[in-house]
Amino acid sequence: MKPLHKLNIIILFWFCSSCSKIVSIDPPVNTIVSEEAFSNNHNANSSVIGIYSKLINQSAVVAFGNGAFSMLNGISSDEITFIGGDPNFDPFFHNQILSDNNLIFSSLWQQPYGIIYQANACLEQLAGNKKVTSPLREQLMGEAKFVRALVYFYLINSFGDVPFLTTTDYKANTVAPRVSQDTIYSNLISDLEGSLNSLPGDFSGYNNERIRATKWAAMALLSRIYLYTGNWGKASQYADQVINSGYFSLLSDLNSVFLKNSNEAIFQLYIDGTISPFNTLPESYLTIPPDHTSLVYFWFPTSFMDEFDSDDLRRTAWVDSTNYSGTVYYYPSKYKIGPTQQAPNSVATEYYMVLRLAEQYLISAEAKAQQGDLTGSASDLNMVRARAGLGPSVFSSKDDAINNILAERKKELFYEWGHRWFDLKRTGKVDSIMNTAAQQKGGSWKPTAKVFPIPAAEIFRNPNLTQNPGY
Amino acid sequence: MHKKAESAATLPANIGISKCHPRRIYLYTPKLDKGMHFTHPLPKQLVLTMQASAILLFAVCLQASAATYSQTVSFTGKDVPLKTVFTSLKKQTGYGVFYQSGEAATLEGASVVTLDLKNVALDLFLQVCLRNQPLEYSVEGTTIFIKKKETRSLTVEFAPGTPISEIHGRVTSNKGEPLVNANIIVKRTGHGTIADANGNFTLHNISSDDVITVSFIGYKSQAVSIQNRASLIVLMEPATNDLDQVVVQAYGTTSQRVATGNISTVTAQEIERHPVMNVLEALVGKVPGLEVTPSNGYSSAPFKVEIRGRKYLNGGLAPDPLIIVDGVPITVLNFQNASPNGTMGFAQSGVPNPIGGYSPLFSIDPNEIESVTVLKDADATAIYGSRGGAGVIIITTKKGKAGETKFNVSCSNGFLKNTQWYHLMNTQQYVAMRREALNNDNMTPDISNAIDLVKWDTTRYTDWQRYLFGRTGRTTKVESNVTGGNNSTNYRISLGYDARTHITTVSGGDDRISFSSNLSHNTANNLFKINLTNLYSFTKVNTIDLPSGVVLLPPNAPSVFDSANNLNYPVWDPVGYLLNPFQGLRRLFEEKTNYLNNRLAITFLPVKGLSFKTSFGYSSFNEEDRFVIPIVSQDQRFNPTGSVNDGTTNGSSLIIEPQAEYNYLQKYFKAEILVGSSYTFGTQKSMSIAGTGYTDDNLLGSVANAPIKYGTDAKGQYKYFGIFGRINFNVLDKYIINLTARRDGSSRFGPGKQYGSFWSMAGAWIFSEEKWFKPITKIISFGKIRSSYGTAGSDNVNPYAYLTRWSSDISNINPYGGTIAYTPIQHANPTLQWQENKKLEIAGDLRFLKDRIDIEVVWYRDRCGNQLLDAPLPVMTGFSTVSENLPATVQNSGWEVRYSTAILKNNKTTFSVNFNIGANKNKLLAFPNIENTSYADQYVVGQSLSNKYVFHYTGIDPKTGKYTFEDKDKDGTITQPAGVKNKDSYGIDPIARYFGGVGMDLSVGGLSLDVFFNFARLPYVQRAVYNSGYVPGSLGFSNQSVRALNRWRNPGDLAEFPKYKTSPDLSDQLFIGSDGGFSNGTFLHCKNISLNYALPDKAIKGIKCQTLNIFMKAEHLFTISGYDGLDPTVPSLGGYPQPFTLTFGANLIF
Fold it and tell me: Which of the four, A336, B85, B939, B1134, has the lowest number of CB atoms within 10 Å?
C-alpha cells in the first residue's frame, strides 16, 4: 500500500502547518483601538472633543443637543405652535406622546446615552492614564463629567428617574434599572463640584472660544441644578460667582447675544459652516423660513405675543414674522442665520447657545426671592429687564417675585432649550397652565403627560426598565 | 495503414496490438451481455507472444494515427437503416465504405439503428453502429470494410469455467473518454479493481464464464460476461434516470443513489425557464427548506437566503449561506451593517444606495449556470467547517463538451409591468375622511392641521402608485456560446448581454455583459488534467432614489413638478414636515461592477486509484457607486447646493486547495479517501468621497469641483485555513458510510479563539439491493435510508469585532472647533468564538415503477449553540448591538418532502409533476440566564424565536369607535409594551408553517410547457397599509385602503375600522402591536410559465442549423392570497415591486 504511505506524509505536512499565524490579519487601518485613542495628549484631547461633537451632532436635525428641546419642549408647553402632519411631532403638540415615538427614542434617549457612553469611555481610559499628562488629564476628565452632567440634567427633566450609567460595561448597563432623580442630582453635583478646580478658569486654553467646558460653565450648570433641587443658597451663590467672574456681560445689543463667542455666552456649541445641509444651526434650519412669505413650522400663539410689553426690545429683536397667504405668523429669531441667509460653505457666525449669563441673573433672582431677599432678587431681574428696554420691577411679596421672575423667564428664555416646559414642571404650575393651553391646541391635558414615556423598545430590551405612569 | 480510435494510443501494449486488428476489439454495451457472440477471441498464447513486439508496433500505430485524431463523426436519427448511416459517414469523413459481399447481401438481416452520437471517434462510431448487428468492420487506409460476422464456436479456446490468469479491459464513456476510477467487480467473487487514468484495468484469476459489473457515477452500470476473451472495452452510457445522474457535492461529485448527505440540485434546464437576472430568483420554491426572499423588486437587490430556518437569535441579521462559484467562495466583508433583508453585498462603500445593496449573484448570468447545488445536512456541509453552518450553495458553470464546434445563439425580448396595486381611496373619499376626522376631533380646518383641505385643490386626483410604478419596462437578452473540442481538449466560450429598464416614473435600468470561458485538457497519457474556468461580467445599474411610502400620499396632493418642470417645493411645504417627497426623482444613483472569477484545477493521476488535485481560485470584484444630489433636486430655499457621493469597493480573494484522493476497491468493499487543505486570503477595501457645496450642477461630474470634500475608507482582510478529510466506505452499493472532518481557523476571531474542529458521520442503506427485496423491485425499484450527524460552524461577525475601536471618520463624527474628534464605534468583545451548529438528519428515498415515482422524506434537526451574533442591546448602553456569543441553543427541526412523478411517458408525450415542501419548526431550546439579557422580554425557552408578542384585538368598540383589546390579566388596563412578561399579550408565530413549490412539465412532440408555482403558509404577515403611524383621517402619508370606509361613525356602529381622527392615540399604538395588525398571508404564487417549441427537422432544413427553438417565458404571473397587502413575502409598503415579466425569443444551435 505504497500510496497510503505517501498520503500519511501529506496529511502530516498539512497538520503541521496548522498554526494561528496563518490566519492572523493586519489590524484595521481606518480605526484605532482604545489604548491608541488615549496614548498621548493629542489623541486624548480628540477623544474628549468627540463628546462635544456628539452633543451638537450637526449632521442631524432635531438631535438631543441641537434643537430637540427648543422644539419638542416648546410645542409640548404653551410657548409655541407647530404645523401639523408629522406623526412624531404632533403627539408632543397634543401632549399625547406614545411610547413608540421615534423622536423620544432617537433624539431624547439614544443620542444622550451615546454621549454618556463616550464620556464614560473617556473617564475610564483617562483615570490613572500616565500617557496623558497632568493637568490636561484632570481637565479632560472634568470636561467629560461636565457634558455627562448636562446630558443627565436634560434626561431626568424629560423622563424623571432614568438609569444612571457611569461605566461602559454593556453587560451591567443592559439590565440597569432607573435611579431616583435625587440620587442622580447628587451625583451630578459632586461630579461638577469636584471638577471646578480642574476645569480652566478662562477661555485662553480654548483659543478664546467658548465652546468647551470651563469652571464657569460648571458653576452655571450647578446653579441651575441647585435651583431645580431647591437649594436656593447654593443656587444664588454659584450664579453670583458666574455673574461676578468678570468674563461675562449682558450685551446691550440683543442681536449680538447669540453670535459666536458673544460676551454673554458661558458655554456654546461649535457650528461648522461647511457641514451640509446644516451649514447653519440645525435648529435655525427648521425654525427660520426661507423668506417672509413662506410658511413656518413653529410660530408663537397670539396669546404669547400679547404677553410682551409693547416696548420690549426682545419682541422686535428676537421675534420675526412671515406673511403666508395673508396671515402673519410670528416665529423665534434669536438666531438670525436661516437656511438661505448663510452663503454655502462660509464660516459660521453663530454658535449654539447652551448656557448664558441672563439665565444666571434669573436663577439668582429666583433663588434670592426664595430666600426672602426681594431687593437682591429684583436687582438681578432688573438687569435682564433693563437690557430688554424695560423699566425696573418692584416685588410686593415672595409670590409676586416668583411669578414675575417666571413671566420674565418665559420672555427671556423662550425657544431656548425648552426652559418654559421645565419651569412649568419644576414650579408645579404645569397642570393649571396646560389645562388651558391643551384645550387651545384642540386636545385635553392629563397630569401624567408632564413626564415623557420611556421608549417602549428600550423597555423591551432591558428587563429592569419600567415605564412612567400613564403610558 | 490501420485507422484507430483516438485514445487508442494510450492503451496498454497488448490492447494496442489488437487495435491494429480491429476485428479483435470487444465492445460491450448494456445490451450486449445477453447472448451476443463475438468472434476471434485472442488466444492467450498469442497475447503472450505478441507482447514483446508490442511496444514497437504501438509506436507505429501512434504515429500513423496522429493525422486522423480529429476524425470525428456525428449522427442523430431514429430507426435509420444502416445504409443511410454509412452514406452520411462517407460524406463526413470522405472514407469509402466497402461491403464484402456486396451492399445488399452484406446488409441483409441488419436492423435499423437509433443513434445520437456527436463528434465521436470513427472507430467508436462504427462500434456503436454495429453493436447489435451481425456485422463487423475494419478500417484500412481510408476505406471501411463491412462484412458479415463469421460464425464460430465460442468455446474453442476455453471451456466454460476455465480459469484465466488475467484479463485486460478498458472502460470509456460512449464518447471515448476514459472513466477514471470506474469500478469493475467480478460478480462471483466480489473481488474487483478500479480503472486507471486511461480507463484501463486488469483482472486476475477469473473464470471464463464470469460476469463483471462495471459502474461509474453518472453512467448506467453494466454486467458484462467475460466469456472467453482476454481483452475488452466497456462502453458506458450516461445514466438517464435522475438517481444515477452526477450531482455536485463538496469537493467532488456523487449521485443521488449513493449520496449519504442531503444534496439538492437545480439544473440549468430549470433555471433557464426563468426570465430573471439573478439566479436566486429562480431558486424560489425549488428546494425544500431553502427560503429565498428578495428585499425588493430590483434585479440587483440583495436577497435573504435562509436554509432550514432562522438560526440566529437576532432576527435583524440574516447571514448568507456559503456560496461557492466554481470552487471559489464568494466572500464579502460587511463594512456596512446588514439588514434583516440580507447584506449589502458588493456595495460596501457607504454611498447611499436606494436599491439596498448589490447581490453578488447579480454578476452571474443565470444562463451560464449548469447547476446549483444546495447542501443542507451535516454530511454535506461539515467539510466546509466554519463556513458551512448556514448551509452551502455550490454554483457550477457550464463547461465545454467534446464534439464538433457548435454555436448556440439565443435572443429574447420582452417587457415588465407592475400588476399589483393597493386599492386606495380616491380624492372624494379621502377628503370626506379628512373632514370627518377633523370634525370628530372638534377641529376647524386651518393651515396647521389641514393644509390638504385649505390649501390644496380638493378635486385634484393622482394615483401615486401608478405615477411611480406605472411604466412598462423592457428587457432584452442575447446569449451566444460556442463549444467544441475533442476528448483531450475542449472548450466553451460564451458571451451574454442582458438589459432591462425599470418600471419607475423616471427610467433606470440594469445592464449586464458577461463573458465566460472554460478550457480543459488531458495530456495524451491522461495522467494530467487541466481545467481553467473564467467568468467575467460587467454590470451597470442606474436608478433614482425612489421615494418610499409616497404611494400613501393624499390623492389630492399637488403636482410634483411645476410648470417649468422644477420640483414644486413651495406648494408641498409641510408634508413630510420638510421636503417634497419626490426629491428622489431627480437624484441619481449609478452602480457599476466588474466581477471576475477564475479557477485553475490541475489533477495528476500518478497511480491507479490515486489523484492529486490542486485548485487555485481567484475572485475579485470592483464596485463603483455614485449618488448625485443635484441642486435641481433640492429645495433651494433651504439648501441651494448640490452634492456627490462617489464610492468604490474592491475585493479580491485567493483560494488554494490542494487535495489528494485515493480510491480503493477490495472484495465487495470500496473506499474513497479524500484529504485536503484550504487556504483563503482575501482583502477588501472601500473608499467613498463626498463632495458637497456645489453651486452649479454642471460641476457635479467630479468631486474635484466640490468646494468641500471629504473622504473615508475602510480596509479589511480575512484569512481562513482549514484541513479536511473525508472517507467514504461502500459495500456492494448497499451499505455506505461517510465520515468527514475539518479543522478550521478564521481571522474573524481574536488570538486564541481562531481554531475550531468540525466533523460529521453518515450512513446509508440501500435496502432495495438486498436479496430479500428483489421480488418487489418491480413495484419499488429503489429504496434507501440514510442518516447523518455532525457539526458545522459559523463565523458570521464583522471583521475586527473583537477589538475596541475608535474612529475619526466623518461618517461617524464631525470635527469640533477645528479639531479632529474621535468616537468609539463598537462594543468590543475579545472572547468571540465559533458558533456551533449540530445537525442531525434521517431520510428515506423510495422510487416506484422503474423510478417513475420518486418520494423522498427527510426529517432533520439543527441545533445552533454558542450563538454568535450581533446581539441587540438597549441603546442606552451606547450601541444598539454587540457581537457576542450567547449560551443559547436554537433548534430548527422539520420535515421535507420531495415528490416527482412521470405520469405519462412515451415517445411523443411526457407529462411529469414535481412537488416539494418543507415545514420547519423553530424553537429556543435553552438559554441560561435569559432573564438578565436584552432578550428577557422577547424570547421564551421552548418557544419559536420568531414568536411575536401581541395583544389580542377584540374589534371596534361600538360605543367609542376605538380599537379594543383583551385585558388578559384582568387588571383593567392594557400594559405596554407587549412582551413575554406582559400578561396582557400572548405569542403568535409568523414563521412560515410550510413552503414549497409545485411544477408541471408537459411535452408533446417538440412543444413543451412548464408551469411552476410556489406557495407558503404564512399565518401572520404584517398588514402593509396599516403599518404606520398615520391613522385613517390624519394628515401626511395617510391615504387609506378603501376598506377603511367601513369605519365607526355613531355609537352602536359595528365597523371594521375605528373612528376617523387626526392623530393616533394609545389604541392605535396598541393596535399596531396586536394580532389585528396581522393578516393571513398564505399564498399560491404562479411564479413561472415557460413554453418552448422545437421546430421539427423538416422546418429547419432550409436554415443550416441543428435545432431551432422558439420560446416564451413569463415570471410573477399572479398570486392567490387573502393577504391584506400586495406581496406577503415582501410586506414593505411602497418599495419597488416585483414586476410581471414576459419575454419571447428564439434559440438556435448550428
Answer: A336
Residue at A47 is within a domain: no
Q: 3-state class of A72 per DSSP? A: helix
The structure's pTM equals 0.82
Cβ of A52 and B821 within 8 Å?
A: yes
Query: CB-based contact (8 Å) between B268 and chain A?
Result: no
> How confident is the model over A377-396, as pLDDT tens digits?
999 999 999 999 999 998 99
Contact present, B207 and B167 (Cβ < 8 Å): no
Residue A262's pLDDT band, with cuts at 50, 70 and 90, is very high
Owner of C-alpha cell 450609567 = A165
B873 Cβ under 8 Å from any chain A Cβ: yes
A332 plus A288 within the same structural domain? yes
Q: How many folded domains does chain A comprise?
A: 2
Which residues in chain B show pLDDT less than 70?
1-71, 131-132, 149-164, 228, 230, 315-318, 574-580, 1025-1029, 1131-1132
Per the CB < 8 A criterion, the answer to whether B892 and B310 are in contact is: yes
Last residue of a domain, one of A312, A341, A370: A341
Q: Does A53 touch chain B (CB under 8 A)?
A: yes
A328 in reach of chain B (CB within 8 A):
no
Query: For residue A403, what is the domain's CATH number?
Result: 1.25.40.390
What is the ipTM for the molecules in this complex?
A: 0.90
Q: How far apart are CA B637 and CA A291, in angstroms?
A: 8
Best mutation target among B659, B806, B881, B1072 (most A Cβ atoms within 10 Å) is B806
Residues in chain A within 8 Å Cβ distance of B1026? none
Whether B806 and chain A come into contact, CB under 8 Å, resolves to yes
**Boundary residue ending a domain (A318, A341, A364):** A341
A290, B81, B83, B135 from B110: Cα distances, Å = 98, 8, 10, 8
In a domain, A419, yes or no: yes
DSSP class of residue B398?
-
Instruction: Tell me if chain B has a CB within 8 Å of the CB of A170.
Output: yes
Which amino acid does the sequence have at B754? Answer: Q
- What residues in B contact A272, CB-CB < 8 Å? 814-816
A256 inside domain: yes
**Is A296 a member of any domain?**
yes
Domain that holds residue A370: 227-270+355-427
CB contact under 8 A, B715 and A297: no
Query: Does A289 share its domain with A421?
Result: no
Task: Tell me, yes or no, if B779 comes closer than 8 A to chain A by beta carbon.
Answer: no
Of A31, A272, A285, the CB nearest to B806: A31
User: Which residues have C-beta within 8 Å of that of residue A264, sequence separation ≥ 6?
Assistant: A248, A249, A250, A251, A257, A356, A357, A358
Nearest chain B residue to A49 by CA distance is B821
Q: A385 and A418, same structural domain?
A: yes
Specify the pairing of strand B96-99 against strand B143-148.
Answer: parallel
Nearest CA in chain B to A7: B660
Task: Report the 10 Å Cβ neighbour count for B104.
Answer: 9
- Write the DSSP string, B989-1029: --S-SEEEEEEEEEEETTEEEEEEEEEEE-S-EE-TTT-SS
CB contact (8 A) between residue A84 and residue B1062 = yes
Beta bridge partners of B710: B690
Q: For B1080-1093, how does the pLDDT look when each residue is reduced to its tens digit (9 = 90+)?
A: 989 999 999 999 99
B453 part of contact set with chain A, CB < 8 Å: no
